[in-house]
Structure formats: structure tokens, C-alpha cells
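Re: the 432-residue chain
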Amino acid sequence: MAAFTLRPYQEEAADFLFEHDRAMMLAPVGAGKTAATLAAMQDLIVREGVGRFLVVAPLRVATKVWPVEQIKWAPNITLDVACGTPKERKAALDSGADVIVTNYDNLQWLADQEFAFDAVVFDELTKLKNPSGKRFKAIEKLLKPINIRWGLTGSFTSNGLEDVFGQCKIVDQKLLGRSKGAFMQQYFLLSTYGGYDEWSPRPGALELVMQRIKPATYVLEPGVYTDTLPPLHTVELRVEMEMREYETMKKNFVLEFPDAVAIAQNAAVVTQKLQQMASGFIYTPTPRWLSSHKFDTLDDLLEENQHANTIVVYNYKEELAELKRRYPHITTVDDVDSIERWNAGSVPLLAVHPKSAGHGLNLQHGGRHMVFLSLPWSLELYEQTVGRLHRSGQRHDVWCYVLMTEKTVDERIWAALHNKRAISNVAMEELK
């Protein structure tokens, strides 16, 4: 019997996993996917005699979340973490624990070990969206003798429909087939613009793909979960800056990449530099600050909120450096005991990067304010980061402030995230 009690929707999710050898769980951030999965794992091990489970997760989730959650939700089984040095990983494998948890970067190492597993869980399944990567090939080697395969995710389509194929191939090749090429031919159209090939979904493709994977997918409907949470308020704070250097930079990029192919190939470089300028700095080649407009707005916002405990989200090291200069008392998630101190209410200002805060951090007990100095391009990272505060256990309204410099790439990034969310919402509806 679990030490904690699952909510009804979590019990339904656990039952679904228990009844399906090949399954995926699609649920919002903070809904309790880990708890439901552990309950199902415990039932299979204790009641059905299933042997060893392998759990693959992002590093922080593997080391900080699964061991803690196992004690709460599956106390009748044992768990060990195979991270760290090769010696530490090998010791975990030799421990005889019912569940071995490791991180994605260790998959190639694990594939070369002589250890068998009866079941596998992929936490944050979107990590496996690229079927041509080395990580994917290592997993395929591991999976050959494993029949029970579960995948957990907040969104299949964080960056578009193409992401779905790799995730489904890992869990069950019968869902969308073995060939990425055949999948693309069936559900996408190829067009050429300025010599640059671009795939776009065929009309109705999203709905058709979701129908294909529906039998193997448990969907936690957002309404069921969000009804248990206090409201989330998202506030767009548009700020102004002197645009002369920004416009000059844009013109220089056009001169540097004069044709459509060159622009497409260098889009990431261009948008990153423009986003940095929108935050007030540029590398030339060393960082040079142009404007403090976002940080001045942050000053005002903190003052307006009476310096309530606040998470500040940054994307660039120069943003972090400026945060540390302005606020010497600021704490980062990498500082010793920072998470524990934040949740205890003793950290007034916590700096986080979406890639470190995007998975596995429980920050709902330490505050209710979050400010994005700049945005990630990934919808998954954005929602995961917001979900650190707006999750089960949060007792107050959550306020999320997005600082956007007017007439810059900031506005385009924000619009792109909304578009990706629209795609994700359609997918959720089709899977119900």
C-alpha cells in the first residue's frame, strides 16, 4: 500500500499503464505522471512478478525526483540510481534493486553492459524525437529483449508533428511504422523555396496521426488537472528600447545572408543575436551592453510586488551576470541546497535557466511569481519552466511575467510559442 494516496485521475493513469505493455502518458506539467507511473510499476512487480524496471530520465529528474517520489508512491519496491562515475553506475546495476534509474547521457554506456531489464520507462519522451541520433540507436539495442515500454511526456508535438515519429517508434513500432521516410511521405508535403526543401503537414495529418496512436496513449485532460490548481496569470510586459543599433544589425544580417537558402541555414544564429540585442547586449566579440530596459523593468516589478519571492528566468550567461551584479543576494538552482531553501521561503530571488528548470524541479512551495527576461524557442521548455511553480501543491495564484522588447524578435518568439501551443492543443483533443 502506497504511503500517499493517488488522485482519481492518477489512479486511472496508473491502471492504463498496468493494462498496456506498450503505452504513452500525455499529461500536463506537475500533474503527477511520476506518481502514477510508480504506482503502476509497483503493482506489476509485486502482483504480477515483473522483474527489473529501467527508468531513463533527464539527469536532475533521475537523481532528485525519482528516488524521492518512489518512497512516497511505491514503498514496497526498491530503487537505485545509476548516474555519476562508471564505478557508481556499475554499483547501482549490481545492487539488485527492482528499479534502476539513469539519465539519457548514460544510454550508450548502459547498452554495452550485460544486464537485462524486463520493462523500461522513458521520462520526458521528447528527448527521443530524433530517430537518427546516437542516443536513439543505443536505446534500440537496449530495447530488443524488453516488451514492456512506457513513455511519459507533456507534449508530443512541442516543435511540430514530425517529433511524434521517433517517440512512437521507441515505444511501439506498430503505431507509426519503422521508416521515418515512409512516415514523412504519408503525412507531409515537400515544397522547395529558393533551393531549400521544407516539409509541411498535409491537411488533416495531425488528426490522422493522433488517431493512430490513440489506443496506446493515456491523456490526462487538462480540465481534470487544472481544476485542482489555483489560477495561472500570464502578463505580457512590453518594454521599449532605442532601436537604431538593432535595425542596423538586422540590415547587416541581410547583407551577410543575401539569399533564402543562406538565411534558412543561419536562422538560429540570426535569431539568437537579435534576441540578445532585445535583452540589451551584444557580443562584438566580447559582450557589450546597449540598454538596461529589461532590468529596469524588473526592478520596478520587484518593487511593485513588494519583493515577494520571485523566480527570474534567463537564457544567456550575460543576463545571469547582470542579475548577479544588480542583485548580489540572488541564488541559482546550482547553489548548495538552493531548492530546499527556496521551498522553505528563505530565497527571495532565484535565477533559473529553462534547461535546468524545465524538468523535475518542484518549486511550488517557495513563491508564486516568475519573470522571463527572455524566452526559450521550445514550447516544451517554456511550459515545463512555468510548471515548476504552477503545479500540484501550489496554494496561491501564480503570476508569470513575460518581458518583451517591442518591435523585436521577442514578439515573434512569443507568437511562435502560441502557435506551437495551438498544435499541441489540437493533438490533445484528437487523443481524447
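The longest helix spans residues 409-431.
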